[in-house]
Design goal:
The complex is a heterodimer. Helices cover about 40% and strands about 15% of the residues of chain A. In chain A, helix 6 links the parallel strand 5 and strand 6. Chain A is globular, with a radius of gyration of 20 Å. By secondary structure, chain B is an alpha/beta fold. Chain B folds into 2 domains: about 100 residues, Urease, subunit C, domain 1, CATH 2.30.40.10; about 325 residues, TIM Barrel (Alpha-Beta Barrel), CATH 3.20.20. Chain B is built from 15 helices and 17 strands. Chain B is globular. The chains are: A alpha/beta, B alpha/beta. At the A-B interface, helix 4 and helix 7 of A face helix 6 of B.
């Protein structure tokens, strides 16, 4: 590991892979549905280099010096926002953070007006979180800044899926032919949707597991129409867990029960909570993951969440490296 | 100023009379005067001759279902702009829905629309009154008075009557007027704030879906109530295969039901929400111009809707012209208004079905003329026909003329069309209302 002289300021990450526009096409990061295997590999390779930067005493490289990254969050978020801002700062970008719930939005400004204002202020990158599916797609049609989707409605959360893939690869050395069980509220989960695309592309076998009321009715057709042949659906948790290499839980929003999609939290816990006993159905040393924030004692028992197989905290750490990699690559992306 | 017009050498199609021949048509004093062999028309002073060689000459189209937004939403459309759009689309009579502000639930509001249309309207406007007061679904309107004022039917379009009891009362009561209840069939508990068809596209896009059964359950309910009450029922914008089948069965049993379908439900599928150039750009757009209620469905539904048109299960084609402002549509998909501005693209869209041999021209024209005329009845005179003595409402269109849709050229204030930029074949050339040319292509 390279050490940095105190007072030498920023260091150049010599281990960064050369930017190849032949592989990398993206000017925006909207979802993983248009990512090739090579592109996902490149993100992970780049993240490896960024992870190395993060181990240095001065965790900062000058890659985005003079660039402005604006985070614009229309939904509350702690980890994703902090992760993106840290990533941008580590790359020496200037960061502005707009809490849309407290800004001019409450005065009736539309999303497009806000975006145009931010662009006029000189934003090179806009990191967006929005409660409406498709909002970042709207943004790309009207502003020139690079748009990075930090979660849109029920639709996509590409940086989360990439950090999930990255975390799995770091532990298990590969992604292809691994069995990944994603358990919980699939219908409303942007994390699940982005992971479906990313994992399918990387050759992992995904099993989605939820009661029918938390599974969009069109999900089966979606998988077949889009040739997502590595993805299947189970409504019982046991077959989903059987021999799984990775178990990923999704947060159960408590309002799902209030809106009648579940009879009771109690029955959900009985049927779907990942307990130590259930975890034993998976492969020995299977990874336990969760995009957070977790409802301990609902979708996951505290013993599992804090147990030896849990990599939940590490997901958060890897998130910074992945987001640094994304900003770095998007800065050099030309086409899309 | 009514002129004497000879439309010469066009192919005259009048399905109501069973006419399909190349002939001349003479209009005098605002009425159809004569149809006959080319060059044989009785001579007239001050004759304006229109060379219609290569054109279809047919009764002006009748739209059973459009939204003119006036009074109350004049930023979206007015009676003046909406009727101009109608004229551009070859429509000579349009029926406007009562979801205005105030809604058309009293005699005075019906009067307002009729008077405004007489002064400013380019085409004839026939208002539809509300089923319930304020479109609240609670108390039925004074239907007899609304009928006397000129309403041609009753509908709470956009805000379906949820209560089966109120709907049953409305049907019972409406019979005295002889007018149909026109229902937008949607169980809003089931559609539950959805944005598009519930299917693979909604699952992919992470958008809340509107299941087909939300429509079908209400169609089934309304058909059962129509059987019970013997009232006239008209099902608005049918969008699913199973709705078509339910209506077919009810008609077989003798239920007094009629039905309409829109040009967009006949030509577009749910996939249009992902964008028009998905394959070219490989990027989703969440196109709000494809957000409409009922939502765009699947290929199987389109096939069933066309079959329904052919076998008579579906009587008419209506545009459900729903103009909106740019602000209503240039926003997040979930927040965008439902609706398509449809009057000016209707014919060209529908002609794509003719050009692809899915529908024959005579059937298509009947669904836009004689069939909707039958549903309206004769209280406004005989509509949808070129019979001598009838008001001269005529559309002339070139079935093969190609053009590219540009919403900026619309007469409608609503530029919200999923066909923007589409290359279509079939173009309205001239529209005549009461013997007066109200629209001519390439002249303002």
């Amino acid at each position: 590991m390279k050490t940095v002289e105190p007072g030498s300021g920023t260091a150049t990450p010599e281990t960064l892979p050369p930017l190849s526009t032949a592989v990398w096409q993206h000017r925006h990061i909207l979802d993983l549905d248009d990512f090739t295997q090579e592109e996902i590999e490149l993100v992970m390779e780049t993240a490896d280099a960024m992870a190395e930067v993060l181990t240095r005493e001065v965790k900062r490289v000058p890659t985005l010096r003079g660039k402005t990254v604006v985070t614009m969050f229309y939904e509350p978020s702690t980890r994703t926002r902090a992760s993106f801002e840290l990533a941008a700062k580590n790359l020496s970008a200037d960061t502005i953070s707009i809490d849309a719930s407290k800004s001019s939005v409450t005065k009736g400004e539309s999303l497009l007006d806000s975006l145009c204002t931010i662009q006029a202020l000189g934003a090179d990158f806009i990191v967006m979180r929005h409660s409406q599916s498709g909002a970042p797609y709207l943004a790309t049609q009207y502003v020139n800044s690079s748009i990075i989707n930090a979660g849109d409605g029920w639709h996509a959360h590409p940086s989360q899926a990439l950090l999930d893939l990255y975390t799995i690869r770091r532990h298990l050395g590969k992604l292809d032919n691994l069995k990944v069980a994603i358990i919980g509220d699939i219908m409303h989960s942007r994390v699940a949707r982005s992971n479906i695309w990313g994992m399918n592309t990387m050759g992992a076998k995904v099993v989605l597991c939820a009661p029918h009321t938390l599974l969009a009715r069109g999900m089966y057709d979606f998988l077949s129409k889009c040739n997502l042949s590595n993805v299947s659906i189970e409504t019982a948790v046991e077959p989903a867990l059987e021999d799984a290499d990775v178990v990923m839980l999704l947060r159960l929003q408590l309002e799902r029960q209030q809106s009648g999609l579940l009879p009771s939290l109690r029955e959900y816990i009985q049927l779907y909570q990942l307990t130590m006993e259930r975890l034993s159905l998976a492969r020995q040393n299977a990874l336990v993951m969760h995009p957070g924030p977790i409802n301990e004692g609902v979708e996951i028992s505290p013993e599992v969440a804090h147990g030896a197989q849990s990599v939940i905290a590490e997901q958060v750490t890897n998130g910074v490296a992945i987001r640094m990699a994304l900003l770095y690559l998007v800065a050099g992306g030309k086409n899309k | 100023m009514s002129t004497t017009i000879l439309i010469s050498g066009g192919r005259i199609i009048d399905p109501g009379q069973g006419i399909d021949e190349v002939a001349d048509l003479l209009i005098t004093k605002g009425k159809i005067a004569w149809i006959g062999d080319k060059g044989k028309a009785p001579s007239q002073p001050d004759l304006t001759t229109i060379d219609a060689t290569g054109l279809i000459v047919c009764p002006g189209f009748i739209d059973l279902h459009c939204h003119l937004r006036e009074p109350g939403f004049e930023d979206k459309e007015t009676i003046a702009t909406g009727t101009k759009a109608a004229a551009r689309g070859g429509f000579t009579t349009i029926c406007c829905m009562p979801n205005t502000n105030p809604p058309l639930d009293t005699q005075s509001s019906i009067d307002y629309v009729k008077k405004a249309a007489e002064v400013e309207g380019a085409v004839q406007v026939l208002p539809i009154g509300c089923v319930t007061k304020g479109r609240q679904g609670k108390e039925i309107t004074e239907m007899s008075e609304l009928a006397k004022a000129g309403a041609i039917g009753f509908s709470d379009d956009g805000e379906p009557v949820a209560s089966s009891r109120i709907m049953s009362l409305a049907m019972d009561y409406s019979q005295a007027s002889g007018l149909p209840i026109i229902d937008h069939c949607e169980d809003q508990e089931l559609s539950d704030g959805g944005f598009m068809n519930d299917g693979w596209v909604s699952a992919r896009l992470g958008l809340k879906g509107i299941p087909k059964v939300a429509e079908e359950i209400t169609v089934a309910r309304d058909l059962a109530l129509a059987q019970l009450t013997n009232a006239r029922l008209h099902i608005a914008h049918v969008s699913t295969a199973d709705s078509v089948e339910l209506i077919r069965q009810a008609k077989d049993k003798g239920t007094t039901v009629t039905a309409e379908v829109t040009p967009h439900h006949l030509t577009l599928t749910e996939e249009r929400v992902m964008g028009s150039k998905l394959e070219e750009h490989n990027q989703l757009t969440y196109d709000t111009n494809a957000k409409v209620n009922p939502p765009l469905r699947n290929k199987e539904d389109i096939a069933a809707l066309i079959k329904g048109l052919k076998d008579g299960t579906i009587d008419a084609i209506a545009t459900d012209h729903a103009p909106h402002t740019l602000v209503d549509k240039m926003c997040e998909f979930g927040l965008a208004a439902f609706g398509i501005s449809g009057l000016e693209t209707a014919l060209a869209c529908l002609m794509s079905l003719v050009h692809s041999d899915q529908l024959d021209l005579n059937t298509l024209i009947s669904k836009l003329t004689s069939e909707p005329a039958r549903i309206i009845g004769t209280r406004y005179g005989e509509l949808g026909t070129l019979k001598p003595g009838c008001r001269a409402d005529v559309a002339l269109f070139d079935p093969n003329k190609e053009w590219t849709v540009s919403s900026l050229d619309f007469a409608s204030k609503g530029r919200n069309t999923p066909f923007d930029g589409c290359h279509l074949k079939g173009n309205v050339m001239i529209t005549i209302v009461g013997g007066k040319i109200v629209y001519k292509l390439n002249s303002k």
